[in-house]
Input
Amino acid sequence: MRIASLLFCCILWMGSLQKEAFIIQQKEIIVKGKTSIGDFECSYGMEEIGDTLYLGNTPNISLDFNIPVKEFGCGNFLLNSDFRRTLKADQYPVCAVRVMRLFRGQKNIYGDLAINLVGKDLKLNNVFFDRNREKLQGKVQLSFEELELEAPSRLGGLVRVEEIIELQIDLYVEPA
Output
């Protein structure tokens, strides 16, 4: 009887070690900001069916985005041009975002990120990821000062971009 209960406990324990996995169907990066006359949003998305990201400490497994800055779309050619000039697309043609790991907090999912934008390496720990049926969504606020960039302005300073921008990472997951 003791052997049977010990075997049962071992099976339960091994099942609890199984890692929860998210199969990523699509990845999207959205940059949001505000100006003195309204909001703007620039995005870049890609479908790469089958990338897998595990919850917990899984060494050497990360989810990488290598984004050509010129591929971000902001809705019109003027905004696209301003966005590319602000991010120095000629000097830094690629933005890299790496989701290094995901882990579960008490009730939520968090992740550690590494971002390389305009030549600056940023490490962001414990980024909250909102989870719903179709996607994991992480949001990070960055400042132009942190990136050593100057907030763009137009029309002699009448139209100015606010200092804080939001970087949103959407990971569309395969339904469970």
